[in-house]
Structure prediction request, 372 residues.
Amino acid sequence: MGQQYLPAPRSDFIGIENIIHLATGGEPPLLTCHRDAFEKFALDKAEGMSGYARHWELVEGVRNKIAGFFNLSIGDIALIGNASEGIVKVLSSINWQEGENVVISELDYTSGRYALGNLKRLGVEVRLVPKTGWYIDTDDLKNACDDKTRVLYLSQVNATTGQFIDISNLSEHLKSSNVAFILDASHALGVVPVQGHLADFTVSSCYKFALGIHEGIFAWNQSRTRDFIPFGVGWSSATAGKKRDDFFLKPGAKRVEYGNAGHLGAYLLNESLDYLNNFGIQKISSHAREMCKKIIDGLKTNGLEVITPTASHEIAGNAAFAFNKPEYFVKRAAEDGILVWGDNNRVRISAHVFTTENDIDVFLGELPKYLS
Prediction:
């Protein structure tokens, strides 16, 4: 499965042999080995209790692999429905008081903006930090925090612009405060190193560069934040006490898995993580950044307003430009067998393990006609 050198062959993926796929930031293709993973899941599911036990054994293995990608420990990792759910689990653990505040960039993803915005009904101030052009500056986020700040949410890779944000300085600034730092790794996991060890909590979707399906990951960095009791509880997140209505929350992040983890998703993600580990995240990151830099240079040559930073260390797997008819652009490109992503007045082009220089050359060669 896979190889040690990039780009990876198209034959490792389902459905992209005859197209140029530059839309991983929205929806990537699945791996051909996922067919075997689904079959294995189905066979285990047919074997009753013993098969169910194997489901959970595999889930534990997946936790361990995710921990490696997040720079955390296996006990810090849980499998949940989606990243948005993970954000709310953190917010539910806080005893909110009127007059407190939360901080988020106005340019960050709606999952965070909506979840934090919902706190207004509790008298919590939502501090939307203005962007500088299309750029998020962590100093602006730090300066927005004070002794009443309870949560700061930030995507490590911005979904709109593709900006990779090094959170080291921000993390150090918040370390001795009462601020719960929530990091969203949805556009980072699988393409660049995730700095989960520098946040209190990390959430991520599985269906983008991680090459999984529509499920989520939750991480509780217990070495940084020891107190975390989410409001919800279920049979899977606790163990029984002496009385019928007594229970004890499970240690670590498992306390947010209220019911069954997504077993099928875990079987598929298990294959995805193994596949990505064949190359190593540093090689993947270097390849994706090189391809995105080539895209950015080509976009600039065409006089477009590039909204992704140009410095290599601030690039991940997405390059984007402002465009007021993004759906039209996407449709025109698809007619030529080129898949990109477009919404919110911008077009996003993604690079991943299977992206080749020729893919970029073909796209850039056809680009002018999609602009008219």
